[in-house]
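This follows on from our talk about sequence and fold. I would like you to pick a protein and set down its sequence and fold. Go ahead and set the record down below:
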Amino acid sequence: MAWLSDSALNHLREVIEWPDFAGTRYELLEEIARGGMGTVYLARDKQLYRKVALKVLNVFEGSEGATRMAHEARILARLEHPGIVPVHDVGALPDGRVYYAMKRVEGRRLDEYARSKPELPDLLRLFCRITEPVAFAHSHGIIHRDLKPANIMVGTFGEVLVLDWGVAKILDFHGNDIGKPGGQKPDAEPPDAAPGAAVGTESHVDGTAHGMVIGTHDYMAPEQAAGEVGAVDARSDVYALGKVLSFLLEQVLGPGGIPKPLRAIAEKAASRKPAERYATALTMAADVARYLDGTPVTAYRETVLERTARLVSRHRTAVALVLAYLFMRLLIFLLVRR
């Protein structure tokens, strides 16, 4: 019996999985990224003469994977926001695999960006921009459920894109405005769990069953980790944003160098009880913006000394002028007495 080397096995896998786009408008150029459900390829649109990204279902994912891929494409098509990658096209290959074409994204993942040690104000402004597409999705009744640094891209010109909506939950499936009378919120969701997630008791083709856990462990809210599907809402994403903020601050400042107000913001967002978290992603962003502006944040109660230090720091130019004035008056007084 002849044994195949690892390189030979990898080559065979690539040959088997390399999608056949003959007869379509796309010409595959190279593989960009590979995930548990699908593989993303760089391709050229032969009709519009532009490069696009093609996400193709992996060979062995089957019908449930196809359902999830189609679900993700519909989610992205529904969310037209600068911070969410637009979908251009969707289809199926001759072998039955679902694919969709989307805007080609260039840049770095958020975790890679954080490791470059940006200045704290730049980092916080970037974080506030991350909350915008998340809040936009929430306003359309869509919960991401897998927010983490690896699913957020920082573009070449500082733009922010929230990726990987394959496990998103639709709260308002029938298109009714959330919060208005008559708004319905069924748990209509895709069937299988995200790569690396723990799967619970059972699942259905048209939804996630109670007891199924979807997401990434380090960023999942307690109700999400417990498989309480009906309890997952916008505050579950706020929890993940709190964990993302903690990750960013620790990468840039180190665990011991995080200012108390910022630590309090991250901890409030990631409270174990949903009622103790920020109600919305934008409310959390507003607290971060208050810190940037040098005003008190709602998540942290300052001491008198901290309040004084903050006011001095915020108005340091005025304080410096007053001190200079007082020093000059004192100097003149002493000279006159002589």
In short: The chain is about 40% helix and 15% strand. Strands lie at 26-34, 38-45, 50-57, 87-92, 98-103, 107-109, 142-143, 152-155, 160-162, 169-170.
